[in-house]
Write a structure and sequence with these properties.
alpha+beta, Mannose-Binding Protein A, Chain A, 20% helix
Length: 374
Amino acid sequence: LTVISLPVSHTQPSSLCPKRFVPIGRKCYHFSKDETTWNDAHFRCSKLNSSLAVITGSHQELLVRRYLNRHRLGRYERWLGGKFNDKKLKWVWAQNGKPLTFHGFSRMNPRDKQWAWHCIILDPERQYKWGARSCVSKNHYICAKKSYKKKNVDKTNCNNNNTTSNSTELCSKNSVGKRAPGLLMNMPKKKKYKPYNPATFICPSHMILVGRKCYFFSLEEANWSDAYWACRDNKTKLATIMTKMEDNILRGFLNGNFTEKHERWIGGIYDWKQRKWKWAMSGRPLRYKHFARAALENTNHTQHCITLDPQYKHLWNSRNRLERKHYICQARSKSVVKYEKPQKFKPDATVIIQFDNNNILQDRNLENTATEAS
């Protein structure tokens, strides 16, 4: 008997997902164990650097439905990232505001006006077909994000000396996305600071340039959640104030005679679990705060968000998110670089150089006589 031993290559998976996420197809999904409203589910997914699940095709929907039917996760209704836009009378994805190109609704008219204030769920009673529930009701939810690829490396070749330059570079990696210290020497150079010039920044037609950012000051009132989505529908966000300079510039504009004196929502929200103020768009805690002293006297900030209050010269205040206020949307300004073509050189006068042939012949004769004498 002849025994043939073949080398076994220990390869790593081609796509990976972070903790608490499951790979399904080309995406990573997180199936929650707790129940919450649709708006809170949106913010909890953003804390996980993801978004409420967006399903754009039948194949993707089939994979998710198979996973829910085969695994013991409990037969719960689960939120997706779609909601009904009562102005356009369409179902849209809240992540990008685009209408649905594919839907898995079962036995319902998705364009009916009765679906105002409703959001999309996966219904276990209909084999996880799509359904609609009031956005205020509490359900489980599904977060989704893209999976990141990792190159397959044969670990048996890492110990050998016959390794190529590409394989040695991959073997020297400590973990996914982190290289050895020796490979971090070629760092990109920092960009040079350009002096601030207001004429080099522009904003969309419906926004105002204040400092280096564009702002939209609403004329109508809305609760904090509606204000958040109104800004997102216009491809902006509720205003975030990151530094003291931004705060002073915006407050100086509001305290002037440019706008009406209204209390206005900005993008700060209170996380009652961690007991911290955070920016809703990124989920990061506030590094800069400028609350009025009267606002800090109220220690119970549950279900509260941040406003700019004209009573305190537009210092920050805390209000219940269900109250109706004006709001401020924010976007980045675009820089405009002026380029002037170099002008062609046009001389004022022409210079003509002439040579005297007689002088040149005399110089040559003198050189010949000097060589003969030597």
